[in-house]
Amino acid sequence: MVDLSTTYMGLRLNNPLIVSSCGLTQTVEGVRRCAEAGAGAVILKSIFEEQIEIDADSFSAGTGTQAWHPEAEEYIGRFGREERIELYLRLIREAKKEVSIPIIASVHCVTAGKWTEFASRVEEAGADGLELNAFVLPSDPRLDAKASDKIYFDAKSEYEFFKGFRRLLEGRAAILISHRFSTVRMADRIFVFEDGRITESGAHDQLIRLNGKYAHLFEKQAQHYR
């Protein structure tokens, strides 16, 4: 049998297949199923700071503290936040007990201080790694919505973006996971998975000539651009 073991972020994996943050990785049972299916590692469903704040505000509003005990509102809100965070830390601890593959936590914060706080707590809970979700969408207040959309969704702008992306990757290895073939085709080597197995592999042109699953899906998506 081929040895697919590798190292990622200093973690030893049995294979390079990592299940990304999704609905399947938000429960211990889902993590167990991923491990049984042969995943090399699992990234837990992301925890969002803004969602925690929304939940805490909803919890506080539901108690009616604003009306009868204003000074208790902050305490109730803090309790709601801590409860949501503790649920995530519990998921990490229980998942670590259930499977032997690396468990990677995933956090999305909007305030600077929370990054380090969450990082420390997930490490203490036993997470083997941490995925940080950062998203910046530069905008120009002088542009209207149509002009802004053109920057990010226009085909020419997308092409220029990926030209820069390729330059950034020169001399480096990167794994691209995308449902858009305009992104996938730029990879030097493409793998097609079906039922947990690699059924096709090669460069874009090679897979098109093969006329298999990849070629069929590429042609199906390309029809929308003709």
Fold and architecture overview:
There is one protein chain. The protein is an alpha/beta fold. The chain has helices at 28-36, 49-63, 65-68, 73-98, 112-125, 145-153, 155-169, 181-184, 204-210, 213-222; strands at residues 6-8, 11-13, 18-19, 41-43, 47-48, 103-108, 129-132, 190-194, 197-202. Strands 3, 4, 5, 6 and 7 form a five-stranded parallel beta sheet that branches. It starts with 5 loop residues before the first strand and ends with a helix.
CATH architecture of the domain at 1-135: Alpha-Beta Barrel
User: Unreliable segments (pLDDT under 50, ≥5 consecutive)?
Assistant: 63-68
Number of helices: 10
The percentage of residues in β strands lies in: 15-25%
Biggest sheet: strands, sense, closure? 5 strands, parallel
Q: What's the total number of strands?
A: 9
Please trace the helix and strand order, writing H or E for each element. EEEHEEHHHEHEHHHEEHH
Multimer state: single chain
Q: Any idea of the CATH class of the domain at 1-135?
A: Alpha Beta
Short description:
By secondary structure, the chain is of the alpha/beta class.
